[in-house]
Structure formats: C-alpha cells, structure tokens
Amino acid sequence: PVPGLGPAPAAGPLGSAGRRGRRMQRSLGWIHVALGCYAMTGWLQPLVMDAIRLSSLEASSSLPPPEPQLEALGVHDGDDWVSYGPVASGSGSHSAHPLPSMLPMLCNAVGMASVGLLTGISESSRSRVGQPCVSRVTQGTALQSLLRLAAVDFISGGLVVLGQLHVPSSLFVVLYASCTIWTAVIAQVWLKQRLSLARWCAIAAIALGLCGDALTAEIGTPQNGSRAGVLLVLAGAFLHSYTICLAERTIRLLPTVSSIEACSFMGAIEASILAFYEITHVLLDAPMPFPPSNVLVLYPLLTFFQAVHAASFFYILGNFGSVTTGVLKGLQMVVVFLASDVLFCSADESDCVTASKFACVVLVVLGLLTYSWADPQRRGVTSAGDGSDVSASSATVMMAKASIETEKRGHSSGTSSWEHVSERCHGSDERGCGEVSGRTARGGGVLGGGGGELEL
After folding, report:
1. What ranges does the record give for the region Disordered, renumbered to this chain (predicted)?
2. DSSP annotation of 75
3. Most buried of 29, 235, 308, 387 (most Cβ within 10 A)?
4. Higher pLDDT, 369 or 451
C-alpha cells in the first residue's frame, strides 16, 4: 500500500487490462478533441480569408484609384492583396504594375512546415531508420522527388489562394468541392478506374450545383469577386487532385521518409520562397500598406488554424472513414455558407444567402454525401481528392493519406503485420507503436481499392 493513497492496484492480467482500458479511453478522448479541432479550423479558414479580403477593401478605400492600365489588367480600387510596385514607362516617368501579395499562402506554408513540430518529429523519428530526419529528406532521390512535389503543390496553392482572395467564402467552398469531380476524371482517364453508377450520379449532382452557384453569383466587381477568381479556384482544385496521385507515388518511392517529415520539408521550402518574395518584391516596394488588422490579427490566425488543422488530421488519421469525412465536408460547406451570411452580408452582398444559392449548396452537399456513402470499402480516412482541406496546402493532407496507403501495401505484400509494425516503431515509444499497429491491423486503405479510388 502507498501511504495516503490506499492499497496499490492489483498486479497481473486484470491490472494490465485496466491500464490498457484507461489508455484507450484517454486516446479516444483525444481523438474526439482532434476531430473537433479539425472540423472547427476547417470552418474558420475560409471565413478568415473572407475577413482578409473585406478588410483589405475597407482599408484601401481612401487610396487613389489605380491607373487605367491597371484597370485593364483587372486590378480594381480596393484590391489590397495586389501591391503596386514602380516600373519605368516608355516616356521615362514611373507608373505602377500589379504585384500579387501572397501573404495568405505564406501563412499556409508556415502552418504546413510546423506540422512536424506539432505532431512530434523528434528523437523518436530520428532513430526510426538510424539517421537524422534532415539527412533522410535531403538525399539525392528523396530531394528531387520532394522538390518536384513541392513545385506542383506550390502552383496549386498559389492558384487557390489568388482565386480565394477574389471570390467570397460562400462561393469558394462550393467551387473547391470540384476536387471530387477532378479526381473522378483522373481516375477514369489516367488510372483507368471504373466508377459506380451511384458515384457518377453524385458527380453529376455536384457539377450541377457548381454550375448553378457560379451562374447565380453576381461576380464581376471587386466586392462580389471576379470570373478570373472562379477559374483560378477551379484550376487550383484540379492541380490539388493531381497532387494526390503524385504524393502517393512519391511516398511509396521514399520508404525511409515519413509523410510528416516530407510535409514539413515541403512547407519549409515553400515558406522560404514566399518569404523571400514578400520581402524583396512586395513589402519593400509597395507604397500601399497592408491593413494593421491583417498583419497583427488575421494572418497569425490563419497560420495558427492551418497548423492546427494539419496536425489534428495526422492525429485522427486512420480512425474515421470516408462517410465521416463526407459528412464533415458537407457540414463545413453549410457552416461557412451560413456564417458568411451572418458575418459579412452587410459588407459584401455576394455573401448573402439567396434561395438559388441555398438550393445549389444543398445539391452539392447531397452529391458529396452520396459520393462518400457509395464507397464500396468504407475504410481509410477519405477518398482521394475529396478536397476536405479548404486551405491551400493540399500536400499536408494528401501525403498523410499516401503514408497510410503505404502501410496497407506493406501489409498486403506478404510482410506480416507484426514485422511491419516492428519496423515502423523501431525506436519509438509504446504509444506510437500502438497507433501504428492499430492502423496496420485495420488495413488502413485510403487511396487504393475500387469504386474510383486512386491506386497507382
């Protein structure tokens, strides 16, 4: 007995079972906390981006209007995310040219780079294969593959962020749901996958909702967005879906590099490029200041939400199926759609809810739920390319999904589950091994399988 604490707990099998049960309860509790953080930050990210867009419009209203040549390029009064740098004109005088400010994308990249810190890349990760994390990531083959993937993700993120800053959040979440359509096209044309009739019906419903929402949106003005913004979001969503295929192949070819390490490395590369661009081409040359509310409040919030969103995804990885993810994505669309009406309708009429917009959103949500429910295997975290991450850093989630698929491949290739777990958990603590063994025992299929899942 322990003085002041009563008798010691009973030893033996019953005591061990009790301890395991308590650990499982604590783990389940943290999983639900992570799920809540994942859903909440996914709802808040597009709303913060809308706040950045509208605060930029308000802060720049007192500035002189852009010159005629800027109007011809699509730059309107109030486009604060476009900075004006001096260039020499033909007559020797100086005019201005538009320079896009990529601060929102920089926030996403910083959050992506910090995933490793929030999910515990430390000595346990270093000892897993006997050499430091940096050494594994910067090997010749690994470095080339990760740089190639980072380039595609960089272009995808840039297109999405530029488009998101030109369309309201209520329209953005609907447009970004086109990832499901693009994934189906890639699976059908490139990967020769066959989709079920239910999924084709779901894709048709999503396409109709997207077209209806884009047609009913009153775009064309800086407050209501632009047609170029719609096209940018759709192009970024397509590259987002393509990134899934490339990420899965990259992770499969790099067995010594974990998805978290690769994600953090890619985020660091993208953040370095964006930071250099912001300092040398935007912040120092731009006569138009950024609103203090953006710099001091909104951009740090965006960075924090992105980091928590990605880290919580890694924590819940393998514990929820595609149906749960589809429900979360549908809820995200509804929450953002209604919240944008409550928060921003008075400042931007394009965020106001109308009957036609509501009908289009309902159609898209029903299509998303049907697409998820039609998954014949109902396992893994989500279907490839579901676009559940509204943030621009798509590889943050996609490489995590590819990692779980790699585990499934290792299990099905003849390697026993316990050997696979032992290899992955070498040098790790008991809790990490338990998480990996649980995923391995369940098969953890994410990108493989039939019914239109991406399988390279």
Report:
1. 1-20, 404-456
2. -
3. 387
4. 369
Give residue 396's pLDDT. Answer: 46
Question: Residue 350 has what DSSP assignment?
Answer: G
Give the global pTM. 0.64
Strand 94-100 versus strand 82-88 pairing type:
antiparallel
3-state helix, strand, coil in the chain (%, to 5): 65, 5, 30
Tokens for 220, please give them. Answer: 């064309």
Examine the pLDDT at 177 and tell me if it is beyond 50: yes
The DSSP call for residue 10 is: P
Cβ-based burial of 61 (10 A; exposed 0-12, middle 13-18, buried ≥19): exposed
Burial status of residue 328 (CB atoms within 10 A of its CB: 0-12, 13-18, 19 or more): buried
Q: How many residues does the chain have?
A: 456
Predicted confidence band at 71 (pLDDT cuts at 50, 70, 90)? very low
Within 10 angstroms of residue 353's Cβ, the number of other Cβ atoms is 15
In this model, does residue 367 exceed pLDDT 70? yes
Query: What's the rounded Cα separation, in Å, for the pair 426 and 264?
Result: 21
Sequence letter at residue 156: S
In whole numbers, what is the pLDDT of the chain averaged over residues? Answer: 65
> For residue 68, what are the contacts with CB-CB under 8 A and spacing of at least 6?
none
